[in-house]
Amino acid sequence: MKKKVLFVASMFMATAMIAQDGLTSKKGEAFLPEAGDWALGFDGTQFLDYAGNMFNGNTGNGLTTNWVQNNPSMTIYGKMFKDETTAYRAKVRIGFGSTSSDAVGFYDADADPTTNSVEYTNTTKSSNMMITLGGGIEKRRGNTRIQGFYGGEALISFGSSSDSYDYGRAYSDDWNADEELLTVPATILGNAVSQRVTERKAGSTFQLGLRGFVGVEWFIAPKVSLSAEYGWALAMSSTGGGEEEVEYWGTSETSTSANSLQTETVNTVDSESSFGIDTDNNGGTIAIFFHF
User: How far apart are CA 207 and CA 146, in angstroms?
Assistant: First the structure.
């Protein structure tokens, strides 16, 4: 089967190469970008997966990528051509997300272990944000529909995430058990009888990257291309400390009064920073571009 797939792929590539007898189509359309052209691109992995499935009837074909700065399937690429051999590049990823889930439980208000008649709902809400912006310059070489390119760009990213926990059953003197449908770690504070997390915030992350890249672009149709790229990057990252808000039934550290609902905020993770220089997409990056 693999030999058949390679044979078909080879025939496909050979046919495409033979057809490259000019830089315009039969209708007179130019294949290559020109000065003043714009280009819009996106991750081409899904396109290639579909083509592979079409060749061998298998739905399991796939390509893998490993990015430090971006997930290519979530990134929009843009280019503006100063001339036929020079283009300004831009990358944008703006992502916001949130989820909410409920866990329903029952307890017996009459202290009868054989009946559980009172229903309560615990709700978990999670949110996250990731913004990545990039810009650079690209130089191109080649006089056929297969073009080489190289250049440099800068990337900056911001990210954060948080979780909140809303409990349907409140603490009291009559009930302050540690068992909850939401199993979340907490730090015992003061003279706590029971304690649980109500909110957890991860430290915000800031990333800055400078990268060089080199690649090949094949114009498969007029102003439509497949691009394969490899990069080498210098990356710096800083993440702030994380914290969580905890509620507990008891007394505060400085109080001797009767038990009551107490809340405190504690640091959970120290801030950290990192620096590295390495190849940034060892699997390579495949993108499809449309020029106009």
Answer: 34
Beta strands per DSSP E along 113-259: 118-141, 146-166, 191-201, 205-221, 224-239, 242-251
Span between the terminal Cα atoms of the chain, in Å:
39
Tokens of 149: 């390119």
Q: Residues near 93 by Cβ (< 8 Å), separated by ≥ 6?
A: 70, 71, 74, 75, 76, 130, 131, 132
Q: Give exposure, 242-259, as e/b (b: 16+ Cβ within 10 Å).
A: bbbbbbbbbbbeeeeeeb
**CB distance 122 to 102 below 8 Å:** yes
Q: What is the pTM of this model?
A: 0.69
Residues β-bridged to residue 201: 162, 243
Q: Is 6 exposed, middle or buried (0-12, 13-18, 19+ CB in 10 A)?
A: exposed
Read off the pLDDT of residues 109-167 as tens digits, 9 standing for 90 and up: 665 555 667 888 999 999 999 999 999 999 999 989 999 999 999 999 999 999 999 98
Q: Is 167 helix (H, G, I), strand (E, B) or coil?
A: coil
291 phi and psi angles, rounded to 5 deg: -105, 145
Side chain identity at 10, as an amino acid letter?
S
Report the sign of the C-alpha dihedral through residues 221, 222, 224, 227, in that order: positive
What would the DSSP string read from start to end of 87-107?
EEEEEEEEEEEEEEEEEEEEE
